[in-house]
Amino acid sequence: QVQLVESGGGLVQAGGSLRLSCAASGRIFSTYVMGWLRQAPGKEREFVARINWGRGSTYYADSVKGRFTISRDNAKNMVYLQMNSLKPEDTAVYYCAVQFVVGGNYNYWGQGTQVTVSS
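Request: output the structure for the sequence above.
Response:
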């Protein structure tokens, strides 16, 4: 199976930046979709961004569009989320996840990394 490990979270002031990393084990097929989701206490997990492993096409939630950038390094099985202009509303545990097909279930999840944005 695919194993995912997130890193790069931390505490940052509003307006600051963080770069999250997701390391995936094993071979990732070009049809896979890698994504970032987040969950704040008392809320459901929320989609943030995704990227097609092969094509590199991206899609973002409206709440982060223009501020966050998802990218990948296929050779290293790495996915990144560059987060700029952070807001307190971005505070959440951020999870890396894999979909075999866009629109399908999230087949694999990491354990998450905490992002806290202070006012």
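DSSP finds no helices and eleven strands in the chain.
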